[in-house]
Amino acid sequence: MSSPTQATQTSLIPDSAEPGGGRLSPATLPAQAISAEVLQEKYAKGEEKTLDELRTRVATALAAAEAPERRAEWSARFLEAQRRGFIPAGRILSAAGTELSATLINCFVQPVGDSIATPEDGYPGIYTALTEAAETMRRGGGVGYDFSRIRPKGAWVGSTQSHASGPVSYMRVFDRSCETVESAGSRRGAQMGVLRCDHPDVEEFIHAKDQGDLKNFNISVGVTDAFMEAVQADAQVELVHRAEPGEQQREQGAYQRGDGLWVYRKLPARSLWDQIMRSTYNHAEPGVLFLDRINNDNNLYYCESITATNPCAEQPLPSYGCCCLGSIDLTRFVRDPFGAKARFDEAGFTEVCAVATRMLDNVLDVTPWPLPAQRQEASNKRRVGLGFTGLGDTLVMLNLRYDSEAAREMARRISEVMRDAAYAASSDIAAEKGAFPLFNADLYLSGGSFASRLPQALKDKIRAQGLRNSHLLSIAPTGTISLAFADNASNGIEPAFSWSYTRKKRLSQIEGGGFKEYSVEDHAWRLYRHLFGEDAPLSEAFVTALELSAADHASMVAAVAPYIDTSISKTVNVPADYAYADFQDLYLQAWKANLKGLATYRPNTVLGSVLSVDSPAVKEPEPLRPVVNEGGANQRLLVKTLPNAVLASLRWPSRPEMPGGNPAWSYMIQHPHGDFALFVGELPAEGPEAGLFGRTLPFEVWVNGAEQPRGLSALAKTLSMDLRTNDAAWLKLKLDALATVAEERAFEMPMPPGGDKRLFPGVVAATAAVIRWRCEQLGALQEGGPTPVLDAMFSREEPRTTVSGTLAWAVDVDNPATNEQFTLTLKEVSLPTPDGGFVTRPCAMGFSGNYPKALDGMARLLSLDMRVMDPGWIGMKLRKLLNVGEPLGHFMAPVPSLAGERRQQIWPSTVAYVARLIIHRYAMLGVLDEQGMPLVEMGLLQAPKAKTAAGAAAELPTMAGRPCPECGNHTMIHKDGCDFCTACGYVGQCG
């Protein structure tokens, strides 16, 4: 637990006018342990233990830019501003006042020319730009680039009489360089790659990350107003470049326009736009930058052109431009939170904004610069970016729901106050220290730019006193600084993503290895519970990001954007099942709302692979081949190519609750040993699956009757879970596997709908045929839909050995109650792990001896389940079988135990005991625990949302994504502009 001193420092400043009355106050809210942990891990230096010690270091370092006689005064004021809620960006907090040569600037934009090394028109050659970027990243800065000047693939290169390889090929070089530089420090390299919408290689660029390429880049398409107008008009657009096309391209129709540009080809604007939208829907990239909006709104329209942004896109910047950032925690200015008189302290907020502006201006004078050109650019324009964080929580504390007009109006007002305070403070600093060198009052305050729309009083002040900083406002992502300095207040402009989650932090070997868990709670949520009690029902204002529509997210940006002179980092997070029809016009709406850009994130099956991002999506995995281990005798099958992770595969994650009952279709199965009834439970489809006239879908099967074959009920139970997937091809594969299960003798049975007899090899095959017929009638086997489970298999067919054989695991089962004695055998395979090792997994099962032949059908089903990459899948199936009972079939047998315990218990059936033995083998291999739960979550199986008591926080769902550097799971998504792991809670270095 954190010290009392630190608890006070991380909590809200109490309102002096707040009545006591014995009621708990925000000031008594204790600190979260995670805050102290992140502070020490990411930002504290030397002997620093508390926030005040760190803040004092930063205040003293930034006050060094002041006149010597006033440094003590400004140091004290800078410290007080931090105590009241100002949080400088992460680079400032971690490096200011230290002996590190790291820059205090988070991000830069670097120019990239078209030649290999020779500068042209002020743009460095490609490899010169690469060197400059590497030096910038080595010093801790992220980098954005516009690659549009690089000539298209196939263009003619006269100097070498060859053809160009195109910008995407050079992006791969920058990508690998970033990866290499990243390994030299603790901060992950960050890059933004931009290509114009009219570049001939734009389609290759849009799809460059589809298969996991360019993993050290965010990418955005630079879009013009002319292009967007062509989209609306369904017109064609020209893809152009100044470089001469190659001979083949000219033969295909490339020609030179009157303005000297070469038109490589034309295509419908809507076709290109649809590619952008479908790619960002399926892969979360590219984002879009509205270049004309950015430049028309630019305060320095008269002396610069902007074509790119920093990696999180909150700062459109010119060549060598930088973002000097800081955020104010808005929650610190809410008085009487959640109360009837809840209000925002505008006067206090204005005071902190003014001091924060001066602090950021001073950063430009005290920071080390990676490159002289960056220093010169900053000196000429003195850009800074003051923003806020905690908006989502602040609205909750003011009893305003994020997606309401009242909330947007409050956000507008807060942004307006920040704008006016920052510009007024910058003008006052200019009167004292001088305006930025490129300031020209006549040009700056006219031309339709942001500054031209300032209130007249501010414009008059700026004209009279000048302005210290060309740009002043930016709303950035604040991932780790929010955790360390703002009690995990909601990030930037975003609503809270979840009310609580568990942060699993990897421990060093010195600390004993493994993971340490922290409970991480949203600030507004925990403050509410602190003030009103654990069981108090949450107010209507409590709404999380995934509960909002994409349009609601964009509407908040549109409300705030008119008051921000650069841009806003905003990731529109939508759930995996968000319909494309609702998503496809999101960027068009953003353009119509005069936004400068937008990014989205929807977790899906393509965003990451289960064990390696380098593994391509595999529909038909290569056949497995046995590999001989060193030693010769002990051989194992080995898989080298693995599938991608998938998410939320179940239409119904468990049997739906139906208090009023549900319809079921029934059929009498007639076989030589007696008849029994087969039932198929059905439910109405929802959403697009329902169709125009509605339809029902099967969700379970069961059998009933005294003469049903033993083991058939267990088969029906495991097949029911396959019916609940959103994967018709997977269900078909399961039914195909049952179609040839042979038993003692074949028999004929009448089939629906007309009663015509068919010959079947056994009752399992006959039952499966009836189930298939009913599924076909309901349209549950229609092809063309998603195949999430099928895509997650590491082998479609059972792995085959050579004549040399392979290792397997076998165990004997003896049920005296049913006079059964047989051997269960598990064939096993080795799969690669991220650390270069292997993990052994069962891949097929079988029985030999005296056992119910219906279990052969269950074995075929479970063998397919075993080859699904996510162990949570087979774990779910086996756990469901543990309670399968059988009249007169219960017996006593030893309990499998990793600890070597010797005890016995009553098992309800042979099937239940077999399931327990298989779980035990998975536990021996370190894949499941002894309860059948996966030791590593991979995202395929999502449990149903738990019902929570009033005021309780729901669990954060695991989502498919890129590999997490902390826990190794492929569950790292893009949230609030930052990397965030939904499995362990790791937050990337942003803010």
UniProtKB/TrEMBL annotation:
Keywords attached to this entry: Cobalamin, Cobalt, Deoxyribonucleotide synthesis, Disulfide bond, DNA synthesis, Nucleotide-binding, Oxidoreductase
Obligatory cofactor(s): adenosylcob(III)alamin
Protein name: Vitamin B12-dependent ribonucleotide reductase
Entries under SUPFAM superfamilies matching the protein: PFL-like glycyl radical enzymes
Domain of life: Bacteria
Occurrences of domain Ribonucleotide reductase large subunit N-terminal (ranges): 34-100
Span of domain Ribonucleotide reductase large subunit C-terminal: 107-601
Compositionally biased intervals (Polar residues): 1-13
Task performed by this protein: Catalyzes the reduction of ribonucleotides to deoxyribonucleotides. May function to provide a pool of deoxyribonucleotide precursors for DNA repair during oxygen limitation and/or for immediate growth after restoration of oxygen.
Enzyme Commission code: 1.17.4.1
Reactions the enzyme catalyzes: a 2'-deoxyribonucleoside 5'-diphosphate + [thioredoxin]-disulfide + H2O = a ribonucleoside 5'-diphosphate + [thioredoxin]-dithiol
Keyword Oxidoreductase: yes
GO molecular function annotations of the record: ribonucleoside-diphosphate reductase activity, thioredoxin disulfide as acceptor
Annotated Pfam families: Ribonuc_red_lgC, Ribonuc_red_lgN
Annotated region (Disordered), positions in chain: 1-29
